[in-house]
Amino acid sequence: MFRPARPPDPDQDLVDRARQGDTRAFDALILKYGDKLYGMVYNMTSNKEDTHDLLQDVFSRAYQSLGSFRGQSAFYTWIYQIAVNLTLNFLKKRKRRSNLSLNELKPTGQGEAEFVDTTNDADPERQAQLKELQIRLNEAMQRLSEKHRMVVTMFDIQGMSHAEIAKILKTSEGTVRSRLHYAHLQLQSFLQDSWEERF
Amino acid sequence: MNPSLEQLETLLALKRDERPQEGYWRNFVVDFHQRQHMDAVERTGLKGMMAKTSDWFGQFGAARWAYGAGMAYACATVIFFVFPREADKVVPAATPVKYEVLPMPATEQLQELDLTPEAKSSDGEQVF
């Protein structure tokens, strides 16, 4: 069957240069996709140090595996997959640790001054209100299972399409939609109390 | 009252604008290169080799160790039976060799006859 040609990877030039040992080219890739990957990893781990270490591992793995990157998918999809796999493995290990303290989890807004909302700087009252609600939202997010939290993060926060998510998670679009639907219902339920207080 | 789906999605979408602090990525890149450099140094040195070996062994869980030990035992058993030791080699039983004394042809016997006078006995009989 005829398969439509995939558009060229916009990062191909940077990837080629990085492969040849140009570290500045790889730095450019880090700066280009760092925020996106940070958002995903941070929303999954809810811990600043873990996010930093995981991202170092993600970029290190990608840098050392550039030789095996065949360009069958876009560089962004490839590195996002690495980040998802490492994050899920990390969360499994963290879950297994019996001595995990609840204090280890610091949701956004609780002592995470560098991870702030930049959209509502002009209205401090509104900002404070949103911040409080976001703390509740982050707590609710942490109550979701990893696979449900992952689809919510990718779809609602990162703005990815169902097809992209399905490709990265190596599952069907139907499964993605189903997980998303269930996760939304759960979040709505978890947020019930705080929503009643505010609105 | 639960938030509606639209309200929930709006709330979640606000998180799209969350960013790490200014300057975070500059420090991140510096840290990244330092780690890469340290990794490279460790990979080439004796310490790196020991770490690699340690990692290699560390990757095996108890089940894999048992599997490896079982495989090694099986290999040793096969080698033991397929290649018997020198002492255990079976020496084939000796079979008697049949020596037949074949009579030489008469002409050859005649050629070997010593007909010189010294070879004759006193009674004129040929001595062999």
Oligomeric state, counting identical vs distinct chains: heterodimer
Give a short account of the largest sheet of chain A.
none
Number of helices of chain B: 5
The share of residues in extended strands of chain A comes to under 5%
Structural class of chain B: mainly alpha
Our Rg estimate of chain B from Cα atoms comes to 48 Å
Name the helicity range of chain B: 55-70%
Contiguous uncertain segments of 5+ residues of chain B: none
Q: Name the helix and strand elements of chain B from N-terminus to C-terminus, one letter apiece.
A: HEHHHH
Strand content of chain B: under 5%
Q: State the distance separating the first and last CA atoms of chain A.
A: 55 Å
Structure notes:
The complex is a heterodimer of chains A (about 200) and B (about 130). Chain A is built from nine helices and one strand. In chain A, helix 1 (about 10-20) crosses helix 2 (about 25-45) and helix 2 (about 25-45) packs across helix 4. Chain A is mostly helical and about 200 residues long. Helix content of chain A is about 70%, strand content about 0%. Mean pLDDT of chain A is about 85; it is low at about 105-115. Chain B is mainly α and about 130 residues long. Chain B has a domain at about 20-85. The interface of A and B includes residues 52 and 117 of A. Strand 1 of chain A pairs antiparallel with strand 1 (about 20) of chain B.
